[in-house]
Amino acid sequence: MHRIAKLTATCAVIMLVGGTLSMPAAAEESSDVLSVDFSQTTGDFRGGATGTLYGFGDDGAPTRALINGAHITNTSQKAPYGTQHPSGDALKVEDGFFAKHGKEMCIYVQDYYPEWPYNGGRRPGDDRTYNQADGTYTSTPNGIWDYLEVVEFVTEAVATGSARPKDYLFIPFNEPDGGNWYNDWGTLKDTFLADWKATYDKIQEVYARHGLGHARIGGPGDTRWQPQRSAEILTFAKANNVLPDVFIWHELGINNLSTFRANYAAYRQLEKDLGIDPIHVNITEYGMLRDMGTPGQLVQWLSIMEDLKIDGQTAYWAYAGNFNDNSARANAANAGWWMYKWYGDLEGGKTVAVTPPALNAVDTLQGIGAIDTRNKRATVLFGGGSKPVSLRLNGLPRWVFDDLVDIEVREITLSGAEGVSGTPRVIKALDGVALTKRSATLEVPTYDRYAAYQVLITPSQDRAVTASPVWTASVEAESTALTDATVYFQDPLAGGGWKFLASGSHDVGSFNKPTSKADWTVTVPRDGRYRFQVIGGTPGTPGRHALFVDGANPTIVQYTADLALTLYQKWQYRGSVEVTIPLTAGQHTLSLRSSLDGASVLPNSDITLDKFLLTDVTDGEPTVYPASTLRYAGGARVTYDVPAARGYASIQGKKDRADAYVQAWETGYHDLTLDYRSIAATDATVSVNGREVATFKPRKAGAWRSTVRAHLSQGINEVEVRSKNGILLQQLTTTRTPDADSAAVTIQAEDTIRHGGAAVTTYADNSGSNASGLKGIGSVGNGAGNTFEIPRAAGFDKPGDYDIAVTYANAELSGRHDYNPQVVDRRLNVTETGGGSGYAYFRYTYAWNSFLERTIPVTLTTANGSLVFGNPSAWAPDIDKVVIAPAVVGVPTTVPAP
Hints:
mainly beta
C-alpha cells in the first residue's frame, strides 16, 4: 500500500484526548508498548556503539561526508606496515576519522601479518631480523622474539607518524583464543601471559622514549566472553601492573542479543572480585551479516551498548571501507547509515530510562531515549519489532517543554547492503500537542521488523510541523502480481545469522525466463515525473530489466553489480537502481520484466527483487532539514527565547556552526535554501563538502530566504552553515534542479587524449555493462606516462571551483580470504597543467564492467591548462566518463521570506 496514504488513513482515526493520542482498542491490543521516562536520566550519551572494524578503506573511502554524518567515534584499523588488508592503514585514514567526531583509533598490531589466522595461526619464534625503520626483515634469527620486533616498529610508526598518538589504542592480540597462537589455554596460558606483559611493556617503552606518556592498550580480544581466561588474565595483569586500558571481547551470533548483558554483568562482577577499578569495555566485533545495514537489527545492539555505556564495533564480514555494509555506493547512505546518523545526533544529551516489552530477548522491540536540554529536544529511537508500537512518553519536564509539544516521527526501512536510502521522511507529525501530567502516548504503525523510527519531541515551534509533503509509495516485490518468478522466505534465524535480510523477510527470485515479470498497480496523484527505485540483488555482474508502463513505453533499468563472493552474499547482497519516468495522474501498472520482447532475456536479468518505490520528483523533491534536526558546534544551539523564532537555531561567531547531511539521489545541481531571521544586517555562509559556496548578506533586520544553486554529489553531502554576525536559522531546504545540469560538461573517456598505455575498452552488450556507449578506458596509471588528458573547453574554461564526477570501475583484489574480498582502493589524480590538482580514492565496484560514480573537487587556477588524469605509483580505476561542473551556477539570491 502507498505509505503516505496508509499513514494518513491511520492518523485519521487517532483521537486527541487530553493530550494523549489514542488508537481504537483493537489496535492497542495488538501493539507493543515502549515506555520512555525522560525524568529518569541514565547518564551522558556515550555514542560509542557505532564503531567499525576495518570500516575505513583509504583516505576518502568512505568520503568525509559519510564519516562525519555517521558520527563514528572509534574504529579498529590495520597497523602501519600491515599486510592483512590492502587498505585501511590507520595512519592513512586518521585525518578523516579525527576531523569531527573520532575519539579513539584502535589498531590490530597482528595485522602486520598477511594471512588469517595470523602467521598461519602459529605463534612466531625467532626466525627473523626486522628493520625497525620500515618493517622489512631478513630470515635470520637475532635473539629477539619476532613479534616483539613487530610491536616495536608499529608503535614507533604511530608515535612518530601520527598527529594524534595519544588517541590511539594498541590491541596486541586479536582473538587469541580462536586459533591465533594461544587457543589451548591449558598448555599455552603461561606463554600468553608472558607475551602480554612483553608486548605491553614494549609499547610503553616506545611511548616513553618519545615523551608521550602512557600508551593506551586494549585486550585480550577473545572471540567471546571467556570467564576463566578473563579471570586469569586480569589476575596476572593486576599483579604485574599491565592491566589493559580497555577490556575487549567479541559478541557474535544471534543469541548474543539475549546473553550480552549477562556477560557484561559477569565481567563487572569479576572486576569487583579481583579488586580492580572498572575498566572501559569495547566489544570490537559484534553482530552478524543479518544485522548489517538493517536498522531494526542495529538498534537492538545499540540500545544494549548505550545502556551499558560501552563502545562497540560492527564485525568485518564483507570488505573494508564501507562501515561494514552500513553505507552504499561510493558516497551514499543505506538504511544502516541513517541508523548510525540518528544515533550520533544524540550527542550532547543524556540518555533516559526505556522499558521495552522484554529485555535480553532476540529480535524484539528495543529503543534508546535521550533528552538534550540545551537544544530542548527529546528523542526516541526504536525498532526490531513487527507489531505497531504504543509509545508512552513520560516525564517531559515543564521547564524544557512547556505545556505544548510538537512531535515528528521519521522512518527508515531496509534498503539492502548496497541499496540507497533517501533522507528519512516524516511519516507522522503532531503540532501543538497538550501534555497531560507531562506525558503523551503515541501510536506508530510499523513497516516491518527491520525498520527503525526516530521520534523527535520539542516545545511547540514557530513553524508548521507536517508530514513530508512529497508523494511516495512502495510495495514489497512479493506483493506484486508475479509471472514466472518465485517468492523466497529469507529466514532471519537461518544459517546462524550468516545471511543478509530482505525487507518483509521475503524476496522474489528465479526471475530468469523471458516471461518473468512483476506487475505493480499504483495510483499517482498528478501528471509529472516519478522516480522508480528497485531494491534487489545483482550477483557479481551488472544486469538489465525493462520497465513497462501499462504494457508499453519500456525503459531499460540498468543495474550495477553487487557482491557475490560467497553463497551467503550472492543473491542476498542487495543494491538499488533508480530510473525516472513520466506518468499521468491516475492508475497505472508498472511492469518490471526480464525481457523486452517476451522471447529473449535481457543480459544478466536473473536478479532478486526485494522492494519497489515510486516518488514524485516533478518539483525537484524539496527536502526540509529543520533546525531541530541539525547538529551544532561551538555556541550554536536551538532557541525558544525569541518571539516568532521559537525552534530556530542561534548561530553567531566564528566557532558556531550548524551541520546538515543532505542526500542527493543523483549528481547535479540543487537549490540550497536557508530560511532565517536577523535582528540587523548580517551574514550567512554555506559550505558544501568543506568548500564555501555562498555568503549571503541581508542589509537589515528581517525574515530572509537565501538560495544558492550548488553542485551536489550523488549520495550524502555535508552542508555547514555559519554566521559571523548572527542569524536565527529556521531550516535548510534542498531542491533538485535538473535543468541546470546543462552547465556541466560530459566527456566520454574514449574521446579523451590518451598517453602511454591508456587504452580504450569495448564492453559487449550481452555483458550487461552500464558503461555509457559500452566503451571506456583502462590501463591508466602505474607509471607517470599512462594518463588521459582533457583540453579546456567551454563550460570549464575559467578559473574557479569545480566538481569532477568520474564514472569508474574498480574490481582489483589483493591476496585472498575465505569470505572477505581483499579490495584495493584505486587512486586517481587530476592535475591542471600549470595550475592546481586534486585526487580521490575509488572504492570497489564488484566487477570491471560495472561502474559507480565518485566526485573529485578541484580548484582550477588557469583558463587554458588542460586536465591530466593518472596515478604514477599504482593503477588508477577504469574510466567510463567524466563530468566537469562548476561548483555553483548563477548568482546566489536573498529575498524576504514569504
